[in-house]
Structures are given as C-alpha cells and as structure tokens.
Design a protein that fits this description.
The complex is a heterodimer of chains A (211) and B (141). With 211 residues, chain A is an alpha+beta fold. Chain A has one domain (32-209): Glutaredoxin. Helix content of chain A is 36%, strand content 25%. Chain A contains 6 helices and 10 strands; from the N terminus they run H-H-E-E-E-E-H-E-H-E-H-E-E-E-E-H. By secondary structure, chain B is mainly β. Chain B has 1 helix and 11 strands; from the N terminus they run H-E-E-E-E-E-E-E-E-E-E-E. Chain B has one helix at 2-14; strands spanning 17-18, 24-31, 39-48, 54-60, 68-75, 78-83, 87-89, 93-97, 102-107, 118-125, 130-138. In chain B, strand 10 (118-125) and strand 11 form a beta hairpin. Chain B is globular. Classes of the chains: A alpha+beta (211), B mainly beta (141).
C-alpha cells in the first residue's frame, strides 16, 4: 500500500478545494465586462497643462489626483449636444450618490474649448445648473490643446456669419481619469447614464483590486 | 368633414397642431437655457399622414429674434451641428426633432425663459401651408 491510498476520499476533496481556493485567490481578478466604457490598455499619465477653473484659480494635473474625474469637452453656446451630455453626466452623479460615500464621489469636469467666449464666471453658473458640484476649466488655447491632444479630444470652429457667431465641432466622448490623474477610460456616444454609472463602479472596483 | 372635425377635436384635446395640408405637429418643447447660455434649442415631432412628401422650410417665433433649423450629428466621435435649409418630412412618416438630432436653434432672449413658460412657433412648409404650435419651456437635460 502506498501513502496516498491511505488518505480518505474526504481528505482528498478538502485538499483539492484548498488548492483551488489558493489558486483563485492568487490569480488577478478578471477585467470587468463593460457596457459603454473603453478601458485604455494601460492608463496614460497626463503631462503638464495650466488651465483656469470656474473660480479663476489655476487648474493643473494635480487637480485630477486623489479622486476619479469624468470630463466632457464643449462650449456654452452649444444648445443641443452639450446640455444633453452635461445633463446626462448630472444623472450619473446622482445615481452614484445613492451608493457612494460623499468623499469617494468622482468629480465632474466641463472643459470649455471656447475661451474666446466662455469666461470662468460664466462657466461657474453654467455647470452648477447641471450638478451643484460640477467644476469647469478653460484657458489659453495652447494650454487647452496641451490637455486635449493627450486624450485624442478634437475640436474645430465651424460655420459662423460673424466674428463672434460660430459653432464648434467637438469630440462627444466622456473621458475618465483615475485617482492617479491618468487617462483611464473613454465613454463614446450614445451615452446612457445608468450604464456609465454601473461601468464606473466596475472600473473603480477593478482598479482598487489590482493596485 | 368628419375627418376635419376629428382632427380639430384631436388638436384641441392633445395640443396637436394641424396644417391645412394635413401635416401634424406635436410635443413641442423648448429646453430651458442654462445660465449664461446664449443659444436655446426647441424640439417637436412632425407627422405626415398624407401621400405627398413635404418639407419644413422655415420657422419663426415672436419669442425669438430668429429660428434656425439645425441637425446635430456625431461622425467619427465628433459632435457637429449642421445648418439645414429645410427638413424633409416623407409621406406617411414622422420626423422627430429631438436632442442629438434635428432641432430648432434660437438666440436666447434678453428676458430669460424659465420652465413652464410657453412660446409660439409658426412652422412653414413647402406647399405654403403653415402650422402654429405652442411649446412649453422645460428644464430637461
């Protein structure tokens, strides 16, 4: 009789279960199945930019750190797509607020790509209409470009009769920054607030489990 | 006569507005402008139960200096607004002017409109018929 035959079948099953449990615990969690978000293969650090927030203060990469940030790029003269997207992001915030601690809530950022017409004072009132905690940023066109070109966000002036009467074509995507201030995921249109909120929670859990 | 009466009753009950040509306009609303926004958008649904293709060729309103017809479209991830000279309303079809698609664009009036206010629009079609509709201002994202 060899040794292993002396082990009872029950003992064998217990050993097998233990081994499986150990293997499962040691293997990394699987990336989440997402409905709307596209995760970057690896989160992308964002290099320096100097913008102005809605209070007229500096807004730099440091302001993206320590919390998650949803960002949308547009302009206040846009009557259809921007209010629709910001209203949708407001719904994402309200949905997340139901289940998240206030200090863990992501921040919602509107970046105006129209500094010629959008001032910090205007932006402060504009974004608060959609969600009281929303923040905004704009600034020197070169500084806006320093941020947007790292994200693949595009914008260009289009049709307009007069100098100050123009439209802007702009990327419709919502960008997600992680608490390290890195470009982490992208939400393409069409946007659905419920799906974005649930994707965000999955992304956040996965991020925390794989740190 | 009976059909006319039905349409009249329908328009009274549901605020559907009808043109002499048989086009119906329903569900008109204006998005309340967020503070600081200089432009506003209005939305409605136009139904064409007739056998003839129609076009919306112009819109005016006593509440706004002018009303433009636009279409938002997202192409390759870029949201753009395209000016429309007219909007086709094919026979036996309904065309919705809705967020993210066709819409009316107006400069915000000096006295801001708030949710609950009502404004009138006069829609002109290519057969020279017109429809007058009342739109409600709504705070809707």
């Amino acid at each position: 009789m060899t040794d292993h035959r002396t082990r009872s079948p029950l003992m064998r099953i217990i050993l097998l279960l233990l081994a499986t449990a150990l293997l499962t615990a040691c293997s990394p969690p699987k990336p989440p199945q997402l409905q709307q978000a596209t995760l970057l293969p690896s989160a992308k650090p964002i290099a320096g930019f100097n913008l102005i927030n809605q209070k007229g203060e500096a807004f730099t990469p440091d302001d993206l750190k320590g919390h998650w940030t949803f960002a949308f790029f547009g302009y206040t003269h846009c009557p259809d797509v921007c209010p629709t997207s910001l209203g949708m992001l407001g719904r994402v915030m309200r949905r997340l607020k139901e289940s998240m601690q206030p200090d863990a809530m992501p921040q919602g950022l509107f970046v105006s790509v129209d500094p010629q017409r959008d001032t910090p004072e205007m932006l402060a009132k504009y974004v608060a209409y959609f969600y009281p905690d929303f923040i905004a940023a704009t600034g020197d066109p070169a500084e806006i470009l320093r941020l947007t070109r790292q994200l693949g966000i595009l914008y260009i002036k289009s049709a307009g009769d007069k100098d100050n009467d123009y439209l802007i074509d702009h990327s419709a995507a919502v960008v997600l920054f992680d608490p390290d201030g890195r470009f982490h995921a992208l939400f393409n249109v069409p946007h659905d607030a419920d799906k974005i909120a649930s994707d965000f929670l999955l992304i956040k859990n996965y991020y925390e489990a794989t740190r | 006569m009976k059909r006319r009466l039905t349409l009249l009753l329908l328009s009274l009950i549901t605020s559907v507005a009808a043109a002499a040509s048989g086009l119906l306009v329903d569900g008109a609303w204006v998005r309340e402008a967020p503070p600081g926004a200089s432009m506003m958008a209005a939305y409605l649904v136009i139904s064409n139960p007739t056998d003839r293709d129609a076009r919306l060729v112009g819109v005016e309103s006593p509440a706004f200096a002018h009303v433009m017809m636009h279409k938002s479209a997202t192409v390759d991830g870029m949201a753009r607004m395209l000016h429309q000279d007219s909007i086709p309303i094919p026979a036996h079809a309904s065309v919705a002017l809705e967020p993210g698609g066709y819409h009316l664009m107006m400069p915000a009036p000096e006295t801001p409109l708030s949710a609950g206010d009502q404004v009138e629009f006069l829609l002109h079609f290519d057969d020279n018929s017109s429809v007058r509709v009342t739109a409600v201002v709504r705070k809707k994202p």
